[in-house]
Design brief:
Blueprint (H helix, E strand, L loop, with lengths): L1 H7 L10 H13 L13 H15 L7 E4 L5 H13 L7 E6 L2 H16 L3 H5 L6 E2 L2 H7 L1 H21 L5
Parallel strand pairs: 1-2, 2-3
């Protein structure tokens, strides 16, 4: 969806950008008051499904949905992209966007990803409460076996607790 949007806007292909370019674009757009997309934007079926899901979230009562979980999260931009799509779709209330770190590589990178997010200007203001994170076990066990996966999960959890404590954010 993000690639289709940035391509449509003439900004290039989001999927080809490195993490710093993505974060720069997403943080800029999250703080921008104007809509990202013009009313006449006609997305493909897949992108329309993503945007329509976000519009349903916007229309739902706040108490009916607690968190938006991002399966296979691996980068800070994954969280920011969901926040931007929710904003674009009219979600005006704070909503927890929760990265689910599942693969061995994602578990190893969970700490740096969360640290990067917590240090971004504006991120903590949008957080408005505790930082929620999910740790997966199935994909990491498939990647590395159950023992290595369990050790990676433990290390990720320890690092996340440490980072959130340093940043004075409830985890």
């Amino acid at each position: 969806a993000m690639t289709e949007i940035t391509d449509y806007l003439g900004l290039g292909r989001y999927e080809d950008w490195d993490e710093e370019q993505r974060i720069s674009f997403l943080t800029r757009e999250l703080s921008n008051r104007r809509p990202l997309l013009p009313a006449h934007f006609k997305p493909s079926a897949d992108t329309a499904e993503v945007l329509n899901t976000c519009k349903e979230i916007a229309a739902a009562p706040g108490a009916s949905l607690g968190s938006y979980v991002i399966s296979m999260a691996g980068a800070a931009s994954d969280v920011l992209a969901v926040q931007l799509l929710l904003k674009e779709s009219g979600v005006l209330r704070p909503m927890r966007v929760v990265p689910l770190f599942e693969t061995l590589a994602d578990l190893d990178n969970a700490g740096p990803v969360m640290e990067r997010l917590l240090l971004l200007p504006g991120y903590r203001a949008r957080l408005q409460g505790p930082q929620e994170v999910m740790i997966g076990y199935s994909d990491s066990a498939k990647d590395a076996g159950t023992t290595a996966a369990a050790w990676a999960q433990y290390r990720a959890q320890e690092r996340l607790v440490e980072i959130c404590s340093e940043q004075q954010v409830e985890l």
